[in-house]
Design brief:
- This is 11828_t:CDS:1.
- It is built from six helices and no strands.
- It starts with 9 loop residues before the first helix and ends with a helix.
- It is elongated.
- The chain has a domain of about 100 residues.
- It is an all-alpha fold.
Length: about 140
């Protein structure tokens, strides 16, 4: 988790003459701006990760289905979850499925409007985007068309 120390360090405290509240406020303002940038980059990074996770997941589902025409979409997804849970011993299939559904919402949106648009995200978290409904995603896509 990202952490920013908002307290002034001893060197900064020694530099501030008694009663220089404005200088202290200016430093705190600068720290807040820096923290804000870190949050933006963290949001974008998480969105990128979920996007590429969902992309890889969908590719694996298609590989399984192409390898055996008798396997349907749901069965292929279940197989991918089983393959993954071997490497994620503390994650249940149900939790993995729910997180994958959220990732797919991110993938659906950005695969339609362009993955480079992730760089423009500043105030929305991956969780906020993943909770968009299909109608809301389509509305966003329509605005970019």
């Amino acid at each position: 988790m990202f952490h920013v120390d908002v307290r002034l360090n001893s060197a900064e405290e020694n530099e501030i003459p008694d009663g220089s509240l404005s200088q202290s406020l200016a430093r705190l303002y600068q720290k807040a701006i820096k923290a804000e940038k870190h949050v933006t980059y963290a949001y974008q990074g998480e969105i990128w990760c979920w996007y590429y996770y969902a992309e890889g997941f969908e590719k694996r589902v298609k590989e399984i289905m192409n390898g055996d025409n008798r396997i349907g979409d749901g069965q292929a997804r279940s197989q991918v979850y089983s393959e993954m849970t071997v490497h994620l011993p503390n994650i249940t299939k149900d939790n993995l499925r729910k997180k994958t559904q959220k990732a797919r919402a991110i993938y659906t949106l950005f695969s339609q409007i362009g993955v480079k648009k992730i760089k423009r995200i500043q105030t929305y978290s991956a969780n906020t985007i993943s909770n968009l409904t299909g109608t809301q995603i389509q509305s966003i896509v329509d605005n970019f068309s």
